[in-house]
Amino acid sequence: MSQVHPTTVIDPAASLGADVEIGPYNVIDAGVVIGDGTRIGSHNLITGATRIGRSNRIFHFCSIGEANQDKKYHGEDTLTEIGDRNTIREYVSINRGTVQGGGVTRVGDDNWIMAYVHIAHDCIAGNQNVFANNVTLAGHVLIGDWVTLGGFVGVHQFVKVGDHVMLGASSIVLQDVPPYVMIAGIPCAPHGINSRGLERRGFSAEAIAAIKRAYRTLYRSGLSLADARAEIERQAAEHPEVKPMADFLAANPRGVLR
Fold first, then answer.
1. Model confidence band, residue 187 (pLDDT cutoffs 50, 70, 90)
2. 112-122: buried (b, 16+ CB within 10 Å) or exposed (e) per residue?
3. Domain count of the chain?
């Protein structure tokens, strides 16, 4: 049975799953769907066509599904989707999508989203990511899986960040970041691969060595981007762990951080 504090206002057209816990002074509007076992603290606004999955933990003073901050938006029916087992800390804001951007803002599963994070319209974030305090994603940003974003990181609109990337604190990310890379500094620059993170996730020493070789090809060889891309594709044929980097570069029309 769900437990809802009497001071919380829930529209009759909202839908709550089993064993949902909702604290005081929340507002949950029509069209919101909250999955089984999700716990919500106090003073949150959840609005619009928002779908929240199972076993999430939402703390206090968050705004989820509110109208976005894009001037093109004129109240169209767009979505906010949040997966399962996410932790969303205080004062997080996640805005709904725009028709022009695909119509949905989506957060996957098992993400750790710390205080004051802003996820703008049409952003897509994968699984197992860490967003440290005050991270800001502009519109249309794509975040892969197992990405760590340090405190006060800002990501420019339409930027793509690959899997297993680590973004150092206060980095301003203006170009796409390939998988496995660490960036830091102002202006931000590449600083090797995320070796420690890969070790923790079970990558073998051989796989990490192959990824380091691909990194050196892209960032240290002096090759043009086109030539580095071709060489990394060749390396990916021998080492499947390199293939995500090769695929990212092949599908990247904007250029990458170098």
1. confident
2. ebbbbbbbbbb
3. 2
| Alpha-helical segments (H) within the chain | 195-200, 205-219, 225-238, 243-250
**Of the ranges 115-119, 126-130, 248-252, which one carries the lowest mean pLDDT score?**
248-252
Catalytic (active-site) positions: 121-122, 139
74: CATH: 2.160.10.10
Q: Residue 252's pLDDT band (boundaries 50, 70, 90)?
A: confident
- Do 49 and 150 lie in one domain? The reply is yes
DSSP 121-162: TT-EE-SS-EE-TT-EE-TT-EE-SS-EE-TT-EE-TT-EE-
pLDDT of 254 strictly over 90? no
Q: How far apart are CA 191 and CA 42, in angstroms?
A: 41
* 212 in the same domain as 149: no
Confidence of residue 1 (pLDDT cuts 50, 70, 90): confident
Do 203 and 133 fall within a single domain? no
Residue type, 71: K
| Residue 243 C-beta-side C-alpha neighbours within 13 Å | 5
Give me the domain span that covers residue 131. Answer: 3-158
Q: Is residue 171 part of a domain?
A: no
Question: Mean pLDDT throughout 177-193?
Answer: 95
At which residue do the structure tokens 């996730």 appear?
201
